[in-house]
Structures are given as structure tokens and as C-alpha cells.
Recover the amino acids of this structure.
């Protein structure tokens, strides 16, 4: 048996030379030290030997076992080390390589304009309110002095769901709801941003869905002077401190008198250029004093209360501010268009 043990050891030494991976090393361990290994067989054969032989062969088995264990362990350490070294050289990370750019979203230009306007009016003590986009004819038209058959309804042709229910054509029904709900008839100072709908054919300056921001102030002794002061602050904050405003007479069924508001051109300062079409002025919103009929219908005594209201289209403001010539760009989700506002946003954050 001693000869067989020696032979086993020689065979083991031969096989050990070919082991160049941890998985081969493990196979070798199982073959030479496992339950079905020769060493195990030899150990079991000990019981048939005489006491004297048992001692000698037992020692040889133990020595061989120790030798195998020791050499396997030594090789394992070397193999692990060289595997680690090869990983370190092959999987080296070049920290100077450019990283993978994450596509983070940006605030949509219309939302930006709405946010800016909201912030400005909040700073002047206004509340921001919203309401349903599916409205009643009563709140969308009748309470705003636009009874059925009124010619001005033609300019706001709408999407009707039933004869009495429609997609709102303006955010004014939110103001109507606010006035009606305000049973104490305390002063009102609100702006109402939101989506509105009109049965318009889409082109570079029209869209069947667009955004509006309307404002309403109702209190005792509110005059056109308050309206002018408010809109002057708005024009300067949105288009630059040097801006001036001018009022032109206009007509809206829900305001009397009604006006259109222009700002001095932010591009040429009023001299005349292609943006202001040579006039030096750019129209930015409509406004007026709330019509007494509207005040009365909404539960405010027009002899005691007065108010001003204004309305604007954030699309138009964004088009003017950022030099966009087609309103459809806002709605088609073309990343090449939208990504340009990433830069605008970063510049804005640097400024503020
Ligand atoms: C109530 C009373 C009065 C809201 C007003 C305008 C003038 C106006 C247009 C601007 C561009 C609509 O988006 S646009 O096409 N709006 O010119 N809006 S006064 O007047 C109100 C609203 C509610 C109770």
C-alpha cells in the first residue's frame, strides 16, 4: 500500500502542474481529498492491516493528505492573486473618459412662462386658482355677459359636448365660480391659468388648444389706475425694466371699458423693427373694468363694488420672449425644439 500511496502522490504532482484555474483546483481537491478519493479508500483499508503496518501506512496517508492540502492551499492563494491581478489590469476604469449623459427633462417653455407669471402675481398678493376644463355654457358664456345668440360668441367657437356643456373657451368661468362661491363678498385678487379650447384651424398663430392666464381684482373703489399700475409691473418684470405700456380702446362683452395693452418693443426699444412690425409697440394682453352686468350676475353689487380683469396667452408671451414663430412647436414634443430651453433654463438659474 505504501507503494500505491507514493504512486498517488506522483500522479497528484503531475496533475497539479496542469492546474491553472480555481475551478480546476477545486476538481483536483475533490478527486484527491473527497469522499470517493483514493486517500479515503486507503484510510478505510487501514482497518485490515496489522497494528505495525497500520502505524506506518497511517503516517504515510496523513503525510500525503497534509502534503496535498498544503500544496492545494498554496496554489489557491497564487491563483487568486493572479486572477485579481488580471482583473485589475483588464478591468481598469479610465476615470477621465466622458460619462454617459443622462437625459433629464426640462420645464416646458409654456410652463416656465406660467410659473414666472404666477410667481410675480403671488408676490403682489394674488391667489392662483384653477377649475374644470369641461364647463357649462352658463359659466363659460352667459355669466360673462355673452347670452345665447350674442355675436361675440362666434369669435370663440367651441367644442360642445351637449347643448349646455362644452370645453371652456377661456379661463373666465373659474373667476365666475370664485365670485359666486365667495358668499361674504370679500375682496378678490386671483389669477387663473389653464388650458382652453376653441374650434380654430391650427396654423402658425392659432391652436385649437392653448393656455390662458386671466386675472381678476374685485373690491370697493377699484379703478383703471389700479389696472394700469398692475400691468406696468407685469410688463417690466416679464420684458425688462425699461418697458412702457400703452392702452388702446377695445371691446370685450365682459369688461367695460375694454382695452388692449401694448408694451414698448423689447427688441428696438420703440424705434421700429421687424418684431414690432415698425410700430415700436407689441400687443401682449387684453383687459378692462369688469362689466356691471357680470358683477351683478356673480353676486357683487355693482354700485358698491368694481373690479378689473385681464387675459393673456402664455404661448404668445413665450413666442415673443424666445423668438418662436410657430405656435405648433409647443405641442409636437420635438426634442430638438424643447432641448433649446435647457440652455435658457440654465442661464436663468445663473441669473437668479
Ligand atoms: C370675469 C370678468 C372679466 C377676462 C379678460 C381679456 C380681457 C382678454 C384674451 C387675451 C388673449 C384672451 O388668450 S386670449 O386670446 N383675453 O383680452 N380677458 S378681460 O375678463 C374677465 C374674466 C372674468 C368674471
Amino acid at each position: 500500500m505504501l507503494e500505491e500511496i507514493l504512486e498517488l502522490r506522483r500522479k497528484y504532482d503531475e496533475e497539479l502542474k496542469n492546474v491553472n484555474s480555481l475551478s480546476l483546483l477545486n476538481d483536483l481537491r475533490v478527486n484527491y481529498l473527497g469522499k470517493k478519493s483514493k486517500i479515503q479508500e486507503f484510510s478505510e483499508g487501514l482497518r485490515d492491516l496489522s497494528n505495525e503496518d497500520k502505524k506506518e501506512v497511517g503516517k504515510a496517508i496523513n503525510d500525503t493528505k497534509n502534503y496535498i492540502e498544503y500544496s492545494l492551499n498554496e496554489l489557491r492563494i497564487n491563483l487568486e492573486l493572479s486572477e485579481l491581478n488580471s482583473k485589475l489590469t483588464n478591468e481598469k476604469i479610465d476615470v477621465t473618459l466622458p460619462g454617459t449623459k443622462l437625459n433629464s427633462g426640462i420645464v416646458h417653455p409654456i410652463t416656465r412662462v406660467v410659473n414666472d407669471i404666477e410667481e410675480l402675481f403671488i408676490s403682489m398678493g394674488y391667489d392662483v386658482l384653477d377649475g374644470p376644463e369641461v364647463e357649462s355654457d352658463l359659466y363659460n358664456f352667459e355669466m360673462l355677459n355673452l347670452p345665447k345668440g350674442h355675436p361675440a360668441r362666434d369669435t370663440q367657437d367651441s367644442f360642445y359636448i351637449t347643448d349646455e356643456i362644452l370645453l371652456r373657451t377661456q379661463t373666465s368661468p373659474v373667476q365666475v365660480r370664485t365670485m359666486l362661491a365667495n358668499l361674504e363678498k370679500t375682496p378678490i385678487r386671483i389669477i387663473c391659468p389653464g388650458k382652453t379650447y376653441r374650434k380654430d384651424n391650427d396654423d402658425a398663430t392659432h391652436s385649437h388648444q392653448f393656455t390662458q392666464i386671466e386675472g381678476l381684482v374685485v373690491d370697493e373703489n377699484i379703478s383703471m389706475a389700479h389696472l394700469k399700475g398692475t400691468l406696468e409691473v407685469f410688463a417690466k418684470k416679464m420684458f425688462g425694466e425699461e418697458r412702457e405700456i400703452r392702452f388702446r380702446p377695445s371691446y370685450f362683452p365682459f369688461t367695460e371699458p375694454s382695452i388692449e395693452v401694448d408694451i414698448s418693443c423689447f427688441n428696438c426699444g420703440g424705434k421700429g423693427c421687424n418684431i414690432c412690425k415698425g410700430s415700436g409697440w407689441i400687443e401682449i394682453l387684453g383687459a378692462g373694468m369688469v362689466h356691471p352686468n357680470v358683477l351683478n350676475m356673480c353676486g357683487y353689487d355693482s354700485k358698491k363694488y368694481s373690479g378689473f380683469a385681464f387675459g393673456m396667452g402664455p404661448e404668445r408671451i413665450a413666442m415673443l420672449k424666445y423668438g418662436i414663430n410657430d405656435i405648433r412647436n409647443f405641442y409636437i414634443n420635438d426634442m430638438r425644439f424643447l432641448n433649446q430651453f435647457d440652455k435658457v433654463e440654465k442661464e436663468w438659474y445663473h441669473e437668479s
Q: What stands out?
A: Residues 51-90 form the longest helix (40 residues). The first strand starts at residue 127 and ends at 128.
